[in-house]
Amino acid sequence: MMRVSLAILAIGSVGAAHAGDDAAALAGIRALLAEMSEAVEAEDIGDYLSHIAPDDVAYLTEQRNWAADLRDHPVHEFELTLSDPGGLVVSEHGWAVGEVRMRWRLGEFEPRKDVRFRARFTPAGHADGVWFYAGEYWTVVRDDRHGAPCRAMAPEGLESVALQIVEVLPSVRERVDAMFGITNDREVQVKVYPTMEHLQASIYLSYEDPLGGWNEPGEAIKLLAGPSLKARNLRRLLAHEYGHVATFVLGERVDDAPWWALEGVAELAADTVAGHTSGARARMVRGWADKGALKAWDQLDDFRGEAGMYAQWVYVQGWHMLRYITERFGDGARNDWIAMLAAGEDLDIATRRALGVGFDELDTSWRGSLETNDDSGAEEPDQGENADTDTGPAQSPGDG
Questions:
Q1: Does the pTM of the predicted model rise above 0.85?
Q2: Poorest-confidence range of 16-30, 201-215, 346-360?
Q3: Domains and CATH numbers, the chain
């Protein structure tokens, strides 16, 4: 039997609770949300972050990144309110839960966006009636069986997905760690979002590209998932996102590495765990080569730059190059190359040091392999019962 601790942070599980008409809590939380709304509209990042509960380091990191995006993408209007003030409940432990409504408009003539979810609030402690915002209210499932803990968090109604995640993640972690030649004993957190709009809004207010998952250094893995998610698709999603976690372990400057390299190696991780779907993707890359539609690598470098227009190439062309590097130079050389990039090394220097050739020479030989139909093993069929039938990337364009 799976040994996990299931901590359901539901109102009924925390003992006696006050009714929703707790006037002091209601007034304090309304004031908190109003101040947060004003800070967002004023692009006052410091003021906004001062209202975030400081005890959850991963969530605080997510919120720092969320707020930092306001510098580049200020909103025209923003409002955070309690959608049902009468439904606010304060637990006997002092924290409160209520449904929050987030509404915003990026530009004056842009459509207004609207997301609702249950949120948690904690007392600030330094003054009566002052509260912190603690983000979404989760069902939490924790697994400590393997010495490297994992925690899955899901909204009410998706508890089964959280349980499925902690059952699958340990084996995913083991196989991806082995692929990268690392040992990662840090806790891995996974958050489940029931709608695309909610997932996007949790990343940045300006985030609009479709995606199935997200991960950045210091943050929880975020997945778009529902109760009908198939186990094999969950394995592939987790393997791709945990592949990013593994690259974060390799170097602190991983975000400076080319986007195509990071997504390419994460796709290899998904192949390693969930089975290969190489043939169709290899044919896609050869088709691009035949039509002169391959992209220059510098076009696929920057997540916030030109590469955003070519996300499919980032994933599929990047995956093909990583497959080529692996088959030609081996796992160890590939891992050394990724580690150097994650440490901030220049692409050409990392390629010369890890692979023994310059990057231009590597690119030329890779393109030549497409002309000669040499896919370095990329034509192998789907492998095993866990092979994913999707021939595209494990994540939709826009994955972090």
A1: yes
A2: 16-30
A3: 8-136 (3.10.450.50), 141-371 (1.10.390.10)
